[in-house]
């Protein structure tokens, strides 16, 4: 729990002049063996708001984490950091359409909504149509 709490503290109080050092430490925490440390590190990265290719690459890797709460926090962070990112759209669409976690799907949609791109808009529209008009839609369907 100490490593998870440290990630929270770093994300909430780090001064601007130390952001790059803090991001480096948080990226290391993304590889932690404990899910709650990875979850808190992703949230802290979103709070700091420093978007680099390294941060995005590490977060993309965690989109397939075994823990739903880690995946959810990755998507919350991506929704804060990503404004226009073509390579991210297919990954977000995959999470929106196929992840078992409803909150993961919700935050994938939120991240897509914040991307200022026609492809993201089309992906959201496709998800809406497939969830409402699919002949296989039943009460247990994910949407």
Describe the structure.
By secondary structure, the chain is mostly helical. It has one domain (2-133): Alpha Horseshoe (Leucine-rich Repeat Variant), CATH 1.25.10.10. It has eight helices and no strands. It has helices at 2-13, 19-29, 35-48, 53-62, 68-81, 89-98, 102-114, 118-133. Helix 1 (2-13) runs parallel beside helix 3. It starts with a helix and ends in a 10-residue tail after the last helix. 36% of the residues are buried. The mean pLDDT is 81.
Descriptors:
8 helices, 70% helix, Leucine-rich Repeat Variant, globular, mainly alpha, 143 residues
What's the layout of helices and strands?
Layout: H1 2-13, H2 19-29, H3 35-48, H4 53-62, H5 68-81, H6 89-98, H7 102-114, H8 118-133
Helix pairs in contact: 1-3, 2-3, 3-5, 4-5, 5-7, 6-7, 6-8
Top CATH class: Mainly Alpha
Q: How many individual domains? A: 1
Q: What integer is the average pLDDT?
A: 81
Shape by Cα distribution: globular
* Main sheet summary: none
Query: What is the structural class?
Result: mainly alpha
Beta-strand content estimate: under 5%
In the CATH hierarchy, the architecture is: Alpha Horseshoe
CATH superfamily: Leucine-rich Repeat Variant
Distance between the termini: 34 Å
Order of helices and strands: HHHHHHHH
Q: Which fold name fills CATH's third level, the topology?
A: Leucine-rich Repeat Variant
Number of helices: 8
Helix content: 55-70%
Summary?
This protein is mainly alpha-helical. It contains 8 helices and no strands.
């Amino acid at each position: 729990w100490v490593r998870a709490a440290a990630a929270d503290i770093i994300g909430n109080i780090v001064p601007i002049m130390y952001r790059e050092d803090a991001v480096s430490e948080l990226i290391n925490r993304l590889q932690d063996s404990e899910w709650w440390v990875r979850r808190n590190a992703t949230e802290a990265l979103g709070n700091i708001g420093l978007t680099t290719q390294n941060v995005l690459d590490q977060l993309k890797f965690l989109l397939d984490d075994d823990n739903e709460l880690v995946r959810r926090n990755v998507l919350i962070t991506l929704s804060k950091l990503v404004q226009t990112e073509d390579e991210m759209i297919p990954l977000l669409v995959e999470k929106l359409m196929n992840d078992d976690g409803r909150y993961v799907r919700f935050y994938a949609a939120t991240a897509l909504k914040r991307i200022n791109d026609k492809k993201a808009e089309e992906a959201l529209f496709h998800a809406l149509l497939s969830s409402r008009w699919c002949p296989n839609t039943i009460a247990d369907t994910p949407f």
